[in-house]
Amino acid sequence: MLMSYREALNQAMREEMRRDSRIFLIGEEVGYYQGAFKVSKGFVEEFGPQRVVDTPITEAGFTGLAIGAAMAGLHPIVELMTMNFGILALDQIVNNAAKIHYMSGGQLSVPLVIRGPGSAAHQLGAQHSQSLEAWFCHVPGLKVIAPATPHDAKGLLKSAIRDNNPVIFIEAQLLYGTKGNVGDGEYTIPIGVAEVKRAGRDVTIVAYSKMLQLALEAADQLSREGIEVEVIDPRTLNPLDLPTIVASVKKTGRLVIVEEGWRYCGLGAQIAESVYAAAFDYLDAPIQRVTGEDVPMPYSRPLEDAALPDKARVIEAVKALYGVQ
Amino acid sequence: MNETDQMNPSGQSSSARLFIMIMPNMDRVDVLFLYRQMLLIRRFEEKSAEMYALAKIAGFLHLYIGEEAIAVGTIAALRPDDYAISAYRDHGHCLARGSDPGHVMAELFGKATGLCQGKGGSMHLVDAPRRFMGGYAIVGGHIPLATGLAFATKYQKLDLVTVCFFGEGAIPSGQAHEALNLAALWKLPVIFVCENNRYGMGTSAERAIALYADVAGAARSYGIMAERIDGMDVLAVRDVMRKVVEQVRGGKGPFFIEAMTYRFMGHSMSDPAHGHYRTKEEVEEHRKRDPLLLLKETILSTDLGTEADFIQLEREVGEVVTAAVKFADESPFPVLSELYNDVLAE
Lengths: 325, 346
Ligand SMILES: Cc1ncc(C[n+]2csc(CCOP(=O)(O)OP(=O)(O)O)c2C)c(N)n1
Hints:
The complex is a heterodimer of chains A (325) and B (346).
Chain A (H helix, E strand, L loop, with lengths): L1 E3 H15 L3 E5 L15 H5 L4 E3 L4 H13 L3 E5 L10 H8 L2 H4 L8 E7 L14 H5 L5 E3 L4 H13 L3 E7 L6 E3 L13 E4 L4 E5 L3 H14 L4 E5 L2 E3 L3 H11 L2 E8 L4 H13 L8 E5 L8 H7 L3 H10 L5
Parallel strand pairs in A: 2-3, 2-4, 4-5, 5-7, 6-7, 10-11, 10-13, 13-14
Antiparallel strand pairs in A: 1-8, 6-12, 9-11
Chain B lengths: L13 H8 L6 H26 L14 H8 L7 E5 L3 H6 L4 H8 L23 E5 L6 H13 L6 E6 L6 H12 L4 E7 L2 E2 L2 E2 L12 H4 L4 E6 L3 H16 L5 E6 L19 H8 L3 H11 L5 H24 L16
Parallel strand pairs in B: 1-2, 1-3, 3-4, 4-8, 7-8
Antiparallel strand pairs in B: 5-6
Helix pairs in contact in B: 1-9, 2-3, 2-11, 2-12, 3-9, 5-12, 6-7
The structure holds thiamine diphosphate (TPP).
Thiamine diphosphate sits at the interface of chains B and A.
């Protein structure tokens, strides 16, 4: 069925909340406002304010509260209005959610989903345009998911809700309105499994979230020029499905990793290191990375465009693997 | 000043009533200046909305329409070397501080001639020479900064005050409370100005703040002197702020003002003026106490000005705003090499 990414998320949460009364949604404007980006449309009407909880602007407080509720047996879904505000909740996420299971020797667990949009939209300025997934991926004890399509968003969100660990689920403002076919009926997609979004023999591109679309467009264009690109979306960033990526690289011998976040210590650096370790002898050229520029996001349109990866840069990176300018 | 000063049913604080009694001694030049500043903000904001519709301005745009009296009244009580800092709804504070409207508009357009060379945008205006230390878009995040500015001026033995503007939505945040405690603990010369426009996005104060009926009580609980004032009456705001500034400058520690106001427009451009969270009638009701209208009535009724003065001010301000848009529109975008400048200081 054709639906938007936003609707797919809405369905995933709705189905899970109907199934399990331990699940509740909490965050700023999730109830009567229907979600800052309207993801929880109709929720307070269906589930009532006890399970769709509007909070004050207190990310540390309500995230901590959700962690506590999870320790006591509930399954909270925390909506962060944007991932930028997750920084305010970072202490709770890193020092509590990620460690409680381990520190307690497995006695306690924190079944919790923290979801909301990451990455830039259009000219939202430096404090509202960040891709922080690498921060979360760095922390043992967290799972991190960043789906690119409505189908993946729905299936992975359901898995995240059913998981017994804290899961950071990263959406994107510019994806909410995008449409795609979503599987009929009840389905889940396992956490930690990548998907080959386009098969090809010459070059592998790894891209996730918003960057998948760029990679697919670049692949289309390159195909017309005779380069067949295989595009892999890891979908889950931690744990990463390395075997799928490595199998592709062994076939193509060339890898480009595309991410919107900052280059330095970005996720692509980790993926590259893992691929070098697993498939060095198969590589015909050094791995290329396409990333956001290492600057706070400027507001001005031409500067913002210059700070973000685009199709031309992906194509350039692929050609660089062949020594072409 | 009486800490328990509360609004009477007409919405005026007792100090506002007191002030109106001494109004006849008001200086004509002063009141017309206050009116002009508020009018400048109003017309600037209306023009910004137009420019947003034309896609000259992008991203988030939060208008200050309805709340002008707070920035204008407060900043009128400051010295040019005092510090001011605000949240993302910051055009009014910046303009009231005296920033050039052309450079502000150019920043909204993302142009190289903008206050921040186009890197900041609407939510992050900074005019350091005018001691406007910025607009910040993480709710509550700049309140500790204000406390730090005040810490610095005390450390440097300067007789400066810092004014920090923020919405009531920031009050529940931990950062606000940590900053209030530090300011009180170390008797810092900072004035917290809470612009209580009753809504943080679509959430009313009642639904977000346990002590919604007495937001200033949060400050009092840390031993900070606090007062609730009518934020629609620019003369009342200025009158109270003059006393507060004098007291804070005199080393008596921080002060907290809860200025009651109302946002006439939506939260940002993506939010209609009256969403499902408030009614059109409610907005109309508050528009009756439009700060520009209130001051105009006072000026006319006290014969400090005439209709001709207002026509003249409209014309002047209209020209300033038109020129600001022209300047912004004709200015170049930043060159791409600017992307990498200013990441680190020299
Ligand atoms: C830490 C944080 N959480 C959430 C947001 C999203 N947000 C932006 S403005 C706003 C409402 C703020 O209301 P208030 O402080 O009363 O200021 P007003 O907009 O009314 O001027 C929210 C929730 C944010 N910018 N920062």
